[in-house]
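#struct-pred

JT: dropping the chains for the assembly here, can someone run the whole complex?
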Amino acid sequence: MFAYVIRRIGAALAVLWGAATAVFALLRGLPGDPAETVLAGSGASQAQIEQMRQQLGLDDSLLVQYGRYLLNTLQGDLGRSLFSGRPVGLTITEQLPATMQLAAAALVVAIVLGLSLGILAALRAGTWIDRVAMGVAVLGVSVPVFWSGLLLIWVFSVGLNWLPATGGGSWRHLVMPATVLGLVGAGPIARLMRASLLDVLRADYITMARGKGLPGTAVIGRHALRNAMIPTITLVGLQAGFLLGGTVITEAVFARPGLGRLVVEAILSKDLPVVQGIVLLTATTYVVINLLVDLTTLALDPRQRQ
Amino acid sequence: MSTRSSPCGKCWRLLIFILITTLPLLSGCAPVGSSSVPPKAVNQPSLGGGKLIYGLTLSPSGIDPHVNASAELGIPLTSVYDTLVYRKLDTTESFDDQFVPGLAESWEVSDDELTYTFQLRRDVTFHDGTPFDAEAVRANIERIVHPDTQSQKAIFLLGPFQSVEVIDEDTVAIHLSAPYAPLLDGLAQVYLGMASPTALAEWGPDYQFHQVGSGPFKFVTYVPNDHLTLVRNNDYNWGPAIYDHPGPAYLDEVEFRFFTDPAGRALALEAGDADVMGELPPFDATHLRQDDRFRVIPIAIPGQPLGLMLNTQRSPLDEVRVRQALLFATDRAAIAQTVFGGESPVAAGPLTAATFGFAPSLTGRYPYNPDEAMALLEEAGWTDSDGDGTRDKGAQLLALDAVLMTWGSVPEMAQLVQSQWAKVGITLNAETLTYPAALQAAREGNYHLIPQNFSGSDPDLLWAYYHSGEPFNWSKLSDAALDDLLEKARSTSDPARRAELYTQAQLHIMELALLIPIRDPVNLNAANVRVQNLSFDAHGWFPLLHDVYLSDQ
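RK: done, full complex below.
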């Protein structure tokens, strides 16, 4: 088991290096010159644009830039934004808490709602309850955040004046953004939970448990749910990463601070160090969450421990 | 099977409990929050006091006015800094005294127009107590031109800057290497606002979070993507004549917040999350006009109109008749109405009607006239010989490539252009790119048409886009006569003479049909009706918050 954990960590590091290299290559492959973008509209001459390129280190060969980037990243230095001149690490860490808060709250909504709908649908499979629950799940995935978000603002802020429409800071600012984003994440969780619970309920050991005369709640709670949760936990891990990405639009709709807007603006303006930094952070988050998921499954599923 | 007792039975019950308690919350049936929301503060009357929340539309990547270029940073910071001079609010009509004193009481231009000498006010102190003097001016300008500052805008406003010289405590001179008439316009902008030299030295590259000016409001905090707060400078007593009252500002505090999603701006205003909101989508502005809780304040922006530049180096646009045909084939009024909700005037030439030096005689030069367009195309040898709807000449089809960008409703605008041109037998292929990619395409000349729209208060901005050899000359034309006009206008300080030269330049640009001007940009601001006396400076973007007060309600 120790060897397994070591192997997983080794693989995680390889993935991170791959992500760092891929984002570097992709960004260099995209058309556009950051120095030109910084100075567009300023009336700069060609010579002044060249000078800016030089100052930003963009006239070095790709290999030199790549080496410098890897070396600096290893030392924890993500560079400075080409536009604001501020350290990328600082730029990210000051926006990170707001995004993490939103992603975490949305994940809670997604898990609670997704599991509830999935379990409800499976236990009442084929009835109208099942259809309504699955309908809600499909609706959650299909309705885009920029629409559901504006709708919620319109009803709860402009109409009823219950919740603040925009901004961050308190839990009341978090309710609507977490709900719309959580709804998106709840759909897949509900569907998978329903499917895997139905699967498990058909298994022999459940029939056996019932046959032994165990009460329904014990059968479901102790035996069925525990087994049905395994694939769902993997999905929840994936959803966590997805929700982190989903904050982009949600943050814009609710005018919340956070990484989302930072990354969109950085990509659109080709602010290389900022995009690299955020991709590395996201990759690290994914890798760490997946590592945790693997270890959790290991704890839940005795077969994998061998 | 494990025989350990599992906690999951409890989990199950907990789950049901959570489901029961949260579902009504999510569907909004429970009175959640209804009792915990405090009533909105009733705004106190009086010309003094109160807090204003001002909605900004994008989150600038940096807000050091000497370093960064965003127009958004000027919205808050125009109230933090004073400038040496100020541009009068409306200089499109009168050519005399375009500038009024600011931190400089008076100024003189040498006969060779290479030296500007400023006599400074003696009663000004920065927010940190540092006195304002000639040394302060020198420190600011030297910071801006220093290569390490990597100035993205301010340095270019200084033109052919050579040096800054402290003559005595209250006198400072700026030396140029060539005459540069737009210098005063640059010095009137927040990018050349005077910062406390003490703070500049203390904070270095972190100065953007610790800004200290001498303006009517003090900079308090800036949290990127979240808010920027200013409080009143009670000592302010040196405001320029463009402010409508002397002494300190009325408001206690102004908080700026960022509303990057255009669709949510009007909603945020209606929900009371902001008192003033800039850059509303035109149809939201129309809607707010009907709501007596709000006032829509449209501000015409000087500079270039939103338009499509034509690449004269790429066939068939190398022929002037084809370019003119495109102008006649474009129903610009229909675009202004459909895409911009009738909130923007139709543009006439390379400068908007709100710009000093605008040539009114251009209005009506290219009316919508498909017949004229078709006649010009026939003349140039473009006919639809195979009847497929697209004109051709030999083996070449009259098909044009447009590189589009996502801002400014450009894609919507292009769709209308596409359908209008189809009627005269021109096919338009459009591709939407990110800004850096579009700039690269522009540099490489891979387009027939490319959108363009930069604001600026001096007509010298034509230089960067029409003078031959400039990197942003997207018509790619080298025209000696046009170069000559732009060079003369740049080096002539007499406003009347400049206006005349720019009129000729604009007429020349439109005779050569280098641009399809579409609409003059208008910043559609809206404010809660309790916001009184909100006006904007000569650049159109920057509010004069010094004069704003909140009425009783």
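JT: nice. The mean pLDDT of chain A is 82. The domain at 92-305 of chain A is CATH 1.10.3720.10 (MetI-like fold).
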